[in-house]
Write a structure and sequence with these properties.
41% helix; single chain; four-stranded antiparallel β-sheet; binds pyridoxal-5'-phosphate; Aspartate Aminotransferase, domain 1; globular; alpha/beta; 11 strands; 449 residues; Aspartate Aminotransferase, domain 2
């Protein structure tokens, strides 16, 4: 099989797979999982045939997928992939660009710069901000926090690049007690010890309480959230950001999914005041429905992010707004291209409509659960439904039963010390009829527990 035939075969197989995402079991069953043994081969002494390699991947790989690119997956705020984003990704894969700078790839540089401009536009964040397209909210958060620390140290005359951290003035970090684990991970990687993080209390919705913030100053980073992972709630940015700005504190907002609320008129109020922060992260691969791994880190102080992330070398220097000078990777794929494609086909009204639809669907689920004796634990301000049954054992059994049924999947969590379940509405493929089938499945399983 030549290269064209091979790629055509891959496209055909992908098409067959996509045709089945509405009907196949959302979580693979025993036989599919057993099939994975076929990948446990010894490393071949001689190379194998490419067509046969693809066939192996499809035959035993496709059945063992979690069908998160389908309409019935409600776990982890994992959106599906918009066809235009998937298609752009496939074309860009054929280009195989190293999207470090204009010199490395003129097309990647220009398209990602357009995507960056559109991101700032649709999220209505300061237009002078730098935008890095990173692999994840985790890595983009790391970039933003590294930029923040370096910048705060520079205020005290400390040259972080030259002298590192030994003997440096302390940079304090304030985190909500509901902060996402990946923010803690980013902080840990950067050397902020867990025990030194200042935890600030949150209310029953998981939001920071402004009156209970620790003392802020100009050597502090305050981490806030747009979209708490369980409840989908937003910190009250107005008062929090005002306090932080008055104290000279750097504010970083983790908005891995919630930042997209800003794109929808009915939801935008949830983010009021967020524009006053210093840096933000969000994902394309969650609510914008772009392929993994596509995330965004935004810093209003473009020069500070570019200085912190610079990777110019004699043989490779580029403008400050080149992606290699804004993020972690030097060689990288143009992950901003599928984001550009998604934004282009959706447009401002399409992003708003999708986000609004998912929130409406979440309320539809919540309402149905509430009227049928489930304990809905959150206010459903966004696309998350957090709920449980009257006993922890029944709650766990319900999740297991729905997952085993294969018609839908959502995950367990712990909320305020007790097991709970979390349904996220974030796939462009999910229709109201899918949502109603999910509710039916929940009611049916609950009635036999
Ligand atoms: C609120 C929140 N922050 C951060 C993350 C981490 O995002 P990523 O998986 O892109 O690193 C997630 C989910 O994964 C999340 O829900």
């Amino acid at each position: 099989m030549d290269e064209h035939d091979l790629l055509r075969d891959a496209a055909r197989r992908a098409g067959v797979y996509l045709d089945s995402v509405g009907t196949r079991d959302v979580y693979p069953g025993g036989e599919a999982l057993d099939g994975l043994k076929n990948f446990e081969e010894p490393f071949p002494e001689r190379g194998k045939d490419a067509a046969e390699t693809l066939a192996l991947l499809d035959t035993f790989g496709s059945p063992a997928t979690v069908v998160s690119n389908g309409p019935n997956y409600y776990g982890f705020v994992i959106g599906a992939t918009l066809p235009a984003a998937a298609a752009a990704e496939r074309l860009a894969a054929a280009w195989d660009q190293c999207a470090a700078s204009f010199t490395n790839s003129p097309v990647a540089d220009v398209v990602e710069k357009t995507a960056a401009r559109w991101i700032l536009d649709v999220l209505d964040l300061p237009r002078e901000s730098a935008v890095t397209f990173g692999t994840s909210a985790t890595s983009c958060g790391l970039v933003c926090l590294a930029t923040a620390r370096r910048s705060l140290l520079a205020r005290k005359g400390w040259d972080y690049d030259a002298d590192g951290l030994i003997g440096a003035p302390e940079v304090r970090v304030v985190i909500p007690d509901t902060i996402h684990i990946t923010m803690r991970k980013a902080l840990r990687i950067l050397g902020f010890g867990e025990a030194r993080l200042l935890r600030t209390p949150t209310d029953t919705h998981g939001r920071v309480i402004p009156e209970q913030l620790p003392e802020l100053d100009d050597m502090t980073i305050l981490c806030l959230q747009a979209g708490e992972v369980n409840t989908g709630e937003f910190d009250p940015f107005g008062p929090l950001v005002a306090k932080a700005r008055a104290a000279g504190t750097w504010v970083h907002v983790d908005g891995a999914f919630g930042l997209w609320a800003r794109a929808a008129q009915d939801l935008r109020h949830l983010t009021d005041g967020i524009e006053g922060a210093d840096s933000w992260t969000t994902d394309g691969h969650k609510w914008l429905n772009t392929p993994y791994d596509g995330a965004v880190g935004i810093c209003r102080h473009a020069d500070l992010m570019a200085a912190a992330m610079n990777s110019d070398a004699a043989y490779s220097s580029a403008s400050a707004d080149s992606q290699k000078n804004l993020g972690i990777e030097f060689s990288r794929r143009p992950r901003g291209i599928p984001i550009w494609a998604a934004l282009r086909v959706l447009g401002r009204d399409g992003v708003a409509e999708m986000v609004t639809r998912h929130c409406r669907q979440a309320r539809r689920v919540a309402e149905a659960l509430r009227t049928n004796g489930f304990h809905v634990l959150n206010r459903c301000v966004l696309n998350q439904v957090l709920f449980r049954l009257d006993s922890d054992a029944r709650t766990a059994a319900l999740q297991a039963a729905v997952a085993a049924g294969g018609k839908a999947w959502f995950g367990p969590t712990v909320w305020q010390g007790r097991p709970a379940l979390r349904i996220s509405l974030s796939s462009w493929r999910t229709t109201d009829a899918d949502v109603d089938r999910l509710v039916e499945a929940l009611l049916a399983e609950k009635s036999v527990l």
